[in-house]
Amino acid sequence: MYQTANGIKMFCFLQILILNGAIKNGSTLIFDEPEVHLHPKWQLEYAKVITSLVRDGIKVLVNSHSPYMIEALELYSKKENINTNFYLANKVDEYSIIEKVTNNLERIYKKLAEPINSLEELDYAE
């Protein structure tokens, strides 16, 4: 296991917790950037696992900076007919404002695209 990539270890970690009964109906899990160390393809698979957990009665909170993870959670939740909520945090002065954007995820994708857009602007400026 020590030679396994960190991102893949999270799949194993979840499996162990489920098999040991540590995660069961009514449990609450918080995933802080579950996409870390995962190729986008594996991010989609991890989103499937997270969606399956919710379908099985586990409450889940996910914090992500990955458009792949966010879109996968959105689409897999729709496919499984799971009610989900999405929020966007914005810094205003020294405060963070958290807004519910469930009906307009485009705001999340636009915010996540800002860094690549600034690189493209730099590239076109030359």
From TrEMBL:
InterPro entries, per database record: AAA_GajA/Old/RecF-like (IPR041685), Bact_Antivir_Def_Nuclease (IPR051396), P-loop_NTPase (IPR027417)
Domain Endonuclease GajA/Old nuclease/RecF-like AAA: 21-70
Domain of life (superkingdom): Bacteria
PANTHER family the record matches: ATP/GTP PHOSPHATASE, EXCINUCLEASE ATPASE SUBUNIT
Protein's name in the database: Endonuclease GajA/Old nuclease/RecF-like AAA domain-containing protein
Species for this entry: Candidatus Thiomargarita nelsonii
